[in-house]
Amino acid sequence: MQKSNYFIKGILESDEKIVTEIYNLFFHKVLSFVYKNNGQREDAEDIFQKALLQISARIKLRKLEVINNSFEAYLFTACKNLWRRELNKKQKRVTNHDVKELVNEELDMTYVLLEQERWELFRDKLEQLSGNCKHVLNLFLKKTSYDQIVKQLGYASETVARQRVFKCKAKLIEMIKADKRFRNLK
């Protein structure tokens, strides 16, 4: 059995041995990420548990048997997205003293699942682009200046780099909108 399927089966069956194995193998990376991003061990434990619940719900909802990427990468991405969401909520609470946010946990989980599916669609389509487009968009998404893009990719000018970024973004958007998952994720 493929390792991803082994972990998925363990989560779905609430197999304590497999869930403990998942925790032992992957928690340290999530803990490190949360520490680096203003969190505590308890935060990392909560996020890790929520991610496992999210994965379980997603698999039951979509009847998924296999996660395309490695299980570790999928789990870590889910944890990162959840932690960033928590940080955004905390920031809103700090900056809006008068606003009290009552979070419906079920609704929140639905948003997290939707966000994760959108991210997966984006990553899938980004991977389907040509090598040059992937490289250009990765540089653009990392906020690399057009001047640096020109130097790294050997374009004639910043105008050429801007046009290439624009064309690659347009192609990516077109591919995303053409995917049948897009209509469900609006």
From TrEMBL:
Keywords noted in UniProt: DNA-binding, Sigma factor, Transcription, Transcription regulation
Gene Ontology terms describing biological process: DNA-templated transcription initiation
Coiled-coil ranges per UniProt: none
Domain RNA polymerase sigma-70 region, chain residue ranges per copy: 28-92
An example Gene Ontology molecular-function term: sigma factor activity
InterPro entries for the chain: RNA_pol_sigma-70-like (IPR039425), RNA_pol_sigma-70_dom (IPR014284), RNA_pol_sigma70_r2 (IPR007627), RNA_pol_sigma_r2 (IPR013325), RNA_pol_sigma_r3/r4-like (IPR013324), WH-like_DNA-bd_sf (IPR036388)
NCBIfam families, per the entry: sigma70-ECF
Family: Belongs to the sigma-70 factor family. ECF subfamily.
This protein's name: RNA polymerase sigma-70 region 2 domain-containing protein
Lineage: Bacteria, Pseudomonadati, Bacteroidota, Flavobacteriia, Flavobacteriales
